[in-house]
Write a structure and sequence with these properties.
Elements (H helix, E strand, L loop, with lengths): L9 E6 L4 H11 L5 E7 L4 H11 L3 E4 L2 H11 L7 E4 L1 H8 L6 E4 L7 H9 L3 E4 L2 H17 L3 E4 L2 H9 L13 E8 L17 H5 L8 H9 L1 H13 L7 E5 L5 E7 L4 E5 L5 H9 L13 H4 L13 H12 L3 H17 L7 H12 L8 H20 L8
Parallel strand pairs: 1-2, 1-5, 2-3, 3-4, 5-6, 6-7, 8-9
Antiparallel strand pairs: 8-10, 10-11
Helix pairs in contact: 1-11, 2-3, 4-5, 5-6, 6-10, 6-14, 9-14, 10-13, 13-15, 14-15, 14-16, 15-16
Length: 405
């Protein structure tokens, strides 16, 4: 990958362009018109946002979830962006992730729906900018093998993992065992319910769960932050990215979200990366890597912030974090099952079919019944995902779990 050396504009595909990460990515890309050329943008159902993005960035391709939505988008673009080829469906997502003229793929679809196009980006040797942590959690061994076999570059967008990469030894690349590193510590804000009395958690609403104190994110990751499953998924993600066992990965609560994570070295040195909670910082780091480029983020005024606090997370308040550690210890297909159960439970909570405190119960139920297998093939991963979804739906069907009963 020498995309930055010849200074031809690099081609970029943004999977999930209409989401929080997609929009932040386009904000950064728009600052560097000589450096990046948008090849493809994808969305699930949000035609309005994708149409506006297509008008502004004039990509070669746009992808919608189905033919009806694609047809509507094509109509909208007839006059303003007639050159854009509008495609539909999951095969088209895979296609635009692997196009020959694409150097960078921003993987910013939420959940398991992003797995196949993200793997395709790795298979075709792209610079993969990974926001879609669920893809790596599900298929860690396969994904990392795909990256190695095809000389892809894998750069994390999650602010914690991006921070960790920045604190790693010189010349470190993801997947290597980091020399001289004794542990890594992921920081977690604790989300909106960090101090809510545990007895009240059963009654919190999707609106409250999605009102994150520090970050403006999509609904699924916002709920994951409120349960701390987000941090659990990130622990598993960190294990794959930085080639470290679960024993060497810690989580600490840090409500200000200013220190994004830290690397402890064997000599006792601890390196951390700090910055305002603005996803354009990790996005710019990855788009510019190994160089630096301006992101548009406000400079950090540490004196104005005054205090940074740290404490141990309470696993009774956040049982999802414990479930994720268990899944990582179990290995194989266990993380894929965990992720699938969580996706079903979070959607049910957002649809007001499940109480907030039943999210970990649903996942626990699925994990108790999961038959952990080796995760050496895509079939094994997708099979575990499908079985876990069925089990989670089975849990939702038990009347006692309905909200308000
Ligand atoms: P979001 O809900 O705002 O956006 C999701 C995007 O994916 C949208 O463009 C949507 O159209 C698309 N999408 C959703 N379902 C799809 C499907 N079934 N098929 C195809 N496309 C689909 O989410 P987000 O906050 O941007 O998060 C995206 C990913 O980045 C998640 O995996 C999240 O964990 C990760 N991430 C987000 C943040 C953040 O600050 N938002 C930070 C770190 C990591
Ligand atoms: Mg994160």
């Amino acid at each position: 990958m020498n995309v930055m050396q010849d200074r031809q504009p690099a081609g970029i595909t943004i999977l999930g362009a209409t989401g929080s990460i997609g929009i932040n990515t386009l904000d950064v890309v728009s600052r560097y018109p000589d450096r990046f050329r948008v090849v493809a943008l994808t969305a699930h159902t949000d035609i309005d946002t994708l149409a506006a993005q297509c008008r502004k960035f004039q990509p070669q391709y746009a992808v919608m979830a189905d033919a009806a939505a694609a047809e509507q988008l094509q109509q909208r673009l007839r006059e303003s962006a007639p050159e854009v080829q509008v495609l539909a469906g999951s095969a088209a997502l895979v296609e635009v992730a692997g196009l020959p003229g694409v150097d960078y793929v921003m993987a910013a679809i939420v959940g398991a729906a992003g797995l196949l196009p993200t793997l395709e980006a790795a298979r075709t040797g792209k610079c993969v900018l990974l926001a879609n942590k669920e893809a790596l959690v599900m298929s860690g061994a396969l994904f990392m093998q795909m990256v190695r076999d095809n000389n892809a570059v894998l750069l994390p967008i999650d602010s914690e993992h991006n921070a960790l990469l920045q604190c790693m030894p010189d010349a470190y690349t993801t997947g290597m065992a980091p020399a001289g590193v004794s542990s890594i510590t992921l920081t977690a804000s604790g989300g909106p319910f960090r101090e809510t009395p545990v007895s009240k958690l059963a009654f919190v609403t999707p609106e409250q769960a999605c009102a994150h104190p520090n970050w403006d994110m999509g609904r699924k990751i916002s709920v994951d932050s409120a349960t701390m499953m987000n941090k659990g998924l990130e622990v598993i993600e960190a294990g794959w990215l930085f080639n470290l066992p679960v024993e060497n990965i810690r989580v600490v609560l840090h409500p200000q979200s200013i220190l994004h994570s830290m690397v402890e070295y064997t000599d006792g040195s601890v390196l951390a990366q700090l910055g305002n909670p603005d996803m354009r910082i990790p996005i710019s780091h990855a788009l510019g890597w190994p160089e630096r480029m301006a992101s548009g983020a406000e400079p950090l005024d540490i004196a104005a912030i005054g205090q940074l606090q740290f404490s141990e997370p309470d696993l009774e308040r956040f049982p999802c974090l414990a479930l994720a550690f268990e899944a990582m210890r179990a290995g194989g297909t266990a993380p894929a099952s965990l992720n699938a159960a969580n996706e079903v439970a979070v959607q049910a909570f957002l649809d007001r079919q499940l109480a907030f405190t039943d999210i970990p119960r649903a996942i626990g139920y699925v994990m108790e019944h999961a038959d952990v297998q080796e995760a050496g093939s895509l079939e094994a991963v997708l099979g575990a995902d499908a079985r876990a979804r069925e089990r989670a739906i089975e849990y939702l069907g038990t009347a006692s779990n309905q909200v308000g009963t």
